[in-house]
Amino acid sequence: MNSFRTWDTRLLQLIGYLFVGFMGLFALFPFVMLLVSSFSSESYILRNGYTLWPAELSFDAYSYIFKDAAQVFSSYKISIFVTAGGTAISLLLSSMAAYVLYRKEVRCRNALAFYLFFTTLFNGGLAPYYIMISNYLHLKNTIWVLLLTPMFNVLYILILRSFIKGAIPDALVESAKMDGAGDLRIFGRIVLPLLKPALASIGLFIALGYWNDWWTSMMFVEKPGLYPLQYLLYRMLSFVNISDQFSEHVSSYIVLPKETFKLALTVVATGPILLVYPFVQKYFVSGVTIGAVKG
Amino acid sequence: MHPKSIRNGSGILADIIRNPMLYLMFLPVAVYFLIFAYWPMTGIVMAFKDFRYHGKHSGIYGSPWNGFENFEYFFKSGKALLVTQNTMVYNLIFLVCYTVFSLLIAILIAELSGKIFKRVTQSFLFLPYFISWVTVAAFFYNFFSYDYGFVNHLLRQLGASPLDVYSNPTYWYCILPILYVWKWVGFGSVLYLAAILGIDQDMYEAATIDGANRFQKIIRITLPLLKPTMFILILLALGRIMRGEFDMFYQLIGNNGALMDATDIIDTLVFRSLVGTQDFGMASSVGVYQSVLTFIIILIANAAVRRYEKDYALF
Asked: Is the entire prediction scored with pTM above 0.95?
């Protein structure tokens, strides 16, 4: 194939490079503009609009965020805590449940799987959910609501189960049982280590869900001390009068770099994801692939 | 009953006695879904009640019944048809665009020979998947803000008049599908690419020997073999056709009155009646309407697939 390139190969390559290249740039474009504009001076943006070329380089917006905005730091703490804690708990309990659904000794395993699956088919709607969480469970304005609401995803549990099925031969579990290992021990010593690649992928999806979750806080959190980053960002972007939000922390005579501040805050809220992205991308791709081979 | 006979039984109780540790390990997840999914399901009764927050007869179970009044109110409000239609039409457009672009990109990437090019563009394409709709809305504002937006600035420089997208509903029939594709196509193309890489290479070689060109191979081999993946993904999406992409609509449009009729979907209506106007009757009846419709659609879609090709069915 390499020696003679026929017309169809060439044409297809041409179309491919053009189309895929265009889509790739289209996907990247807004990120570049965000980053560049956030380093521009406020007055330049007000005069010329957002830009692709760094003009009148300025760090005003960033220095403002990191000097005066205690809220940003508090939101950072909340986001990191919820993401780390939630992901760890969710991953452990999800893989444990997946392991139980895999074990052949559990005769009711299909019924248990359906018990989980049914919740994706049918639910009571937002209104009862909202009332339950706030009036019956009293989780409103607590850190628990941020941890618990996005905690489990049935799909991830089922994907983990099919991964265990594929990665761990029945004989391995059987022989461990013969040697007298208990169910928990088999899980901890045999299943978990073999599950590592899947745990990395699913863990990243769970972490992403926590990090990007603004919905829970919009519904159930009114205390600024509990705002995660994404929700803070949402509030900043949607309330035009930014000084209302920050009035507690800022003396009134400081003129805020309003437009660039929004951009800089977006960079700050999204930055951690973009920084780890190159290193974890392959786990995401393998995560999608595990899901695609659905069992 | 003798203890031993319970142990040998087939019920869940016998199973628990046989495998106490395994059931204990499942317990946290089971309890979670009991509290956060099944218990709220009983809250469906709210839709048939005159919900009251305070007082002697209040709460989900204490409020007085009012039959189908909430539903009557919802259907008479004139909103029912509008939001149902919007939700379905947008989701169908999204599904078609998403599937076409994901397939196209996956097939083309599989054909390309430049390894680095492939890796780099794939990273770019996957990037939007990782950000929240809050950030997407911020991006969008950077482009289309009337005063400072990049696009509008460009239009002004070219002597054209700027687009006022935030007060003109017609633009959104285009904008929303484009944003949807922008956000999810990286994910979709990886899904389809995984399926393409799973195709047996011998088939392509055999086709080459028979004199087929690249385009013929794509149409005769790749596409037909992608059918199962496509089927499952489309079935899953159809099952969710009554559930709108709330994050997207809410973040981009919010409570913008000028765009309301063109972009109000079931999920935004429920949210607005719940949090905005505190109309619990409306919110709960619309929620039940959505859940029941979704459930019926999933059953129909699944039965149809089962009839056509049993292996592709979900259950």
From this structure: no
| Residues A102 and A165 sit within 8 Å (Cβ to Cβ) | yes
Tokens coding A16: 């491919």
**pLDDT at A244 (0 to 100):** 44
CB atoms within 10 A of CB B311: 9
Mean pLDDT of chain B: 90
φ and ψ at residue A57, rounded to 5 degrees = -50, 130
Do B12 and B117 have their domain in common?
no
Closest Cα of chain B to A247: distance in Å?
A: 22
**Closest Cα in chain B, distance from residue A50 (Å):** 5
CB pairs under 8 A between A and B: 282
Range of the domain at B135: 78-312
Q: Are residues B170 and B231 in the same domain?
A: yes
- Expressed as residue numbers, the domain containing A77 is 64-292
Is pLDDT larger for residue A126 or for residue A248?
A126
CB contact under 8 A, B194 and A103: no
Candidates B10, B13, B22: best to mutate against A (most CBs of A within 10 A) is B22
Type of residue found at B197:
L
Contacts of B47 in chain A (CB under 8 A): 125, 127
What integer is the mean pLDDT of A21-44?
90
Asked whether residue A6 is domain-assigned, the answer is no
